[in-house]
Amino acid sequence: MVTDTISDILTRIRNANMVKHQIVQIPLSKMSKAISMILKEEGFIEDFEIFDNELENIPYLLISLKYKGKSREPVICKIERISKPGLRVYANTKKLPKVLNGLGIAIISTSRGIMTNLKAKELGIGGEVLCYIW
Fold first, then answer.
1. In angstroms, rounded to a whole number, what is the distance separating the alpha carbons of residues 108 and 117?
2. Where does the chain show beta strands of DSSP type E?
3. Is residue 34 exposed (0-12), middle (13-18) or buried (19+ Cβ within 10 Å)?
4. Of 29, 44, 86, 99, whose CB neighbour count within 10 A is largest?
5. pLDDT string in tens for the chain (134-residue length)
């Protein structure tokens, strides 16, 4: 059983990206769906779909990864978990992280839902820094 679902999601995406798989299967949860929506909005993945395994009745996400060029270079260069179950990392509005001078994003869990660091700064709220992606 997985105790840290966010790390599991990020690790599955990172591993599939390294071996250049086209799709990756992730167990469905509100968190995985929110992270997938952000990755799609920011252009890090092509698309995602929700499927239901008819045999075991377990829903899951199929994420279509994005590559560039004929050499199929991954769009996601690095995906890194910041806040962990053993050490939570929080940031207020003034201390929100700036990833790679604005080239990357940080995913923040706020009181208004999961969003990027740019949107959280725009709304003037802080929260738990989940991960960095660039």
1. 6
2. 23-27, 45-53, 58-65, 67-68, 73-74, 79-81, 90-91, 105-110, 113-116, 127-133
3. middle
4. 44
5. 678 999 999 999 999 999 999 999 999 999 999 999 999 999 999 999 999 877 778 899 999 999 999 999 999 999 999 999 999 999 999 999 999 998 999 999 999 999 999 999 999 999 999 999 99
Predicted structure pTM score: 0.91
Between CA 59 and CA 51, with CA 84 as vertex, the angle to 5 degrees is: 10
Q: Interior CA angle at 78 toward 74 and 79, to 5°?
A: 115
Write out the two tokens for 126: 């802080």
CB 46 within 8 Å of CB 93: no
